[in-house]
Amino acid sequence: MIRNPFHSFFGGIVTAVVITGAASAQTPSNTQLVPRVMVPTGRRAPAPPPAPVATTRTLYPWKTQVTCTIFWVGEQAGERNPTPNNRSSWDPQWESNFGGYDDPEPVKRIANFTTGEFRPKGFVPKLNPFYIALPYNDVVSSLCHKPEAARVIPWFRRMHPEPGQTVCKGRWLQVYRAGRSCFGQWEDCGPWETDDWEFVFGSKPPKTTQNGAAGIDLSPAIRDYLGVKSGEKVHWRFVEAAQVPYGPWQKYAAQPPAAAGAPDLASQQRHMDNLRRLRDEQFLKKPLTQLQN
Known about the structure:
There is one protein chain. This protein is an alpha+beta fold. The chain has a domain at 59-256: Barwin-like endoglucanases, CATH 2.40.40.10. Helix content is 17%, strand content 17%. It is built from seven helices and ten strands. Strands 1-9-4-8-7-10 form a six-stranded mixed beta barrel. A two-stranded antiparallel ribbon has the order 2-3. A hairpin with a 2-residue loop joins strand 5 (139-141) and strand 6 (144-145). The two termini are 42 Å apart.
């Protein structure tokens, strides 16, 4: 997994002089000395208001050395996958909404870093092919959440969900392996467990002992992007949507489109924000002599 931040630049240089006065010899010993602050010239500017708390800058802890497995939309039930994946924990029409069978066979996939295409050859996905499963489901049914959900899920209370409305589906994660990082969305529950909140939101290892005590399922697109194999170790953490850089994981609709052919405006906005961030970073690297010209 990986770890990922914003600057602004001001053209002038402001200097301030702070002088502390000496204590008077007659000052009682039990009186606390208060330094005197002297401003040489000009009026004292009003104190700025406190900066608002930026929830988009939240840094979630890393889960390190977690065994991963590979799963895919449309996967049939088998010895290592007891539940078929034509539906997910939160989407009974997952395969249909995705656009079809997300064939994991490398010869039937596109994995192109130049064009950003990471998908099956047979169709263009209608949902994000960079998807993930974690071993927790926050809802019992469409009527209620699990009793611990509001307490253990960090973003639960600020989302104000209706009873039975999941706050986990669609959450972004950052996954890191061997010097490369990618991003994906939480779209299903597993591997094996659906109640392991101590691992997903706490500090305990995964409950399951299946598949090498696997703690995260990765889609074929993530597998191809990271060059990871089932059974290998990765690091992962949650990230806020605003922290996700533009990449192949935003090339397709991150959520079901409102209408066929509708533009993904949220992805376009994130792309523009990322370009502005890169521009500002390059600007701040310039020496002062260049900025003054």
